[in-house]
Design a protein that fits this description.
- With 346 residues, this protein is an alpha+beta fold.
- The chain has seven helices and 17 strands.
- A hairpin with a 5-residue loop joins strand 1 and strand 2.
- The longest helix is centred in the N-terminal third of the chain and has 46 residues.
- The termini are far apart.
Length: 346
């Protein structure tokens, strides 16, 4: 027996006692991936919960403070502003009354509230550094599919040269673009308030060089009126724009082939959208006109060029209108022969 034990002892190899523990696992199957995942989650569920909560909180913060401001700005960028009517009245040397109705259009599924804000007005000519000619207060807007925006205020001209350029553009252009820009706060449901840049270029129709302007009737007066007028008539002024413009007493210089023959005044001129027929009071050099008819324009048809001279409202010269009108030359042909025949001088 002792020999047997000794032999068995001699058959053991180093490390065999350790392997014996392994032998106890013989016949057992290795746990599946699902089982191991379950055991892991069972042990570390609280850690995974913390990670999920943190990720959710981070995503919410990113949506609120990063994504939402971008979504809000994109909504503003994709909206449109249309000017339905614009009235410039009670003008002075450096101010005017502005009454404007606009429609803010948006196809966004969001309908935020925009706070009232101070907006600059400028010529939108593609220059990023265009100087504003004036500033207005845009009232609070609830951005629906089509929100009405009403502006009613006295506007101070901030840059006279820019406003002269704008007025000249209005007179001479078929279409022009008006830049409206300002920063405001946007509110949408329970999202935090965010700041957006309201920057719009609004396309408007201009006066298109007053194409179609005409003297529709006139009569020569041998005895001048109390104001000195010796030719009275009516003129037709088309206005394809949505603007109503009070210009005061507008005086026009009259030329025939570069020769000055007199001036015409359009008293209390207000140009409204559509067709305008206004009275004309003229003081002309009748002797010179008779000489031109008898020597050069013997058919009685006198080609007259008309240029803006002055615009005066309640005693104040409106430089911005005067320079705009001076940039434009109108040409009409007057049947002076017929007018002379009507007073027995043909």
């Amino acid at each position: 027996m002792a020999e047997t034990k000794e032999t068995a002892s001699e058959d053991l190899r180093p490390g065999q006692a350790i392997d014996a523990a392994h032998f106890n696992q013989i016949g057992r199957t290795k746990p599946s991936l699902r089982t191991r995942l379950w055991l892991h989650l069972k042990k570390w569920w609280w850690l995974h919960l913390v990670v999920v909560v943190c990720l959710t909180f981070l995503i919410v913060l990113l949506l609120i403070y990063v994504a939402f401001p971008h979504i809000a700005q994109d909504g503003i960028n994709n909206s449109m502003l249309e000017i339905q009517s614009m009235t410039i009245s009670n003008p002075t040397e450096d101010t005017f009354q502005l009454d404007q109705t606009s429609i803010a259009r948006s196809d966004s599924s969001y309908h935020p509230q925009l706070d009232a804000f101070n907006a600059s007005l400028s010529i939108a000519d593609g220059q990023s550094d265009a100087k504003p000619y004036a500033y207005i207060i845009i009232p609070a807007i609830h951005a629906t599919k089509a929100a009405t925006v009403l502006v009613n205020q006295t506007v101070q001209i901030a840059d006279m040269e820019q406003f002269i350029d704008y007025s000249t553009l209005v007179v001479n252009s078929e279409e022009l673009q008006l830049g409206v820009q300002g920063w405001t706060s946007l509110h949408e449901m329970s999202y935090p308030q965010t700041t957006v840049n309201y920057n719009k270029n609004v396309t408007m129709k201009g006066l298109n060089k007053l194409q179609g302007f005409n003297v529709t009737s006139f009569q020569i007066k041998l005895l001048p009126e109390p104001d000195g007028s010796n030719m009275l008539g009516t003129v037709y002024i088309p206005n394809p724009s949505v603007m109503t413009i009070t210009m005061g007493n507008v005086t026009l210089s009259l030329y025939v082939q570069g020769t000055y023959i007199g001036n015409s005044t359009l008293p209390d001129l207000v140009i409204q959208p559509g067709n305008n027929t206004v009275s004309m009071h003229s003081i002309v050099d009748q002797t010179l006109v008779l000489e031109l008819i008898s020597k050069t324009y013997m058919n009685g048809m006198l080609p007259v060029s008309i240029m803006g001279n002055s615009s005066v409202y309640r005693g104040q010269h409106l430089t911005y209108f005067e320079k705009a009108l001076a940039s434009l030359t109108l040409n009409v042909t007057l049947n002076v022969g017929e007018a002379l025949a009507n007073i027995g001088l043909a």
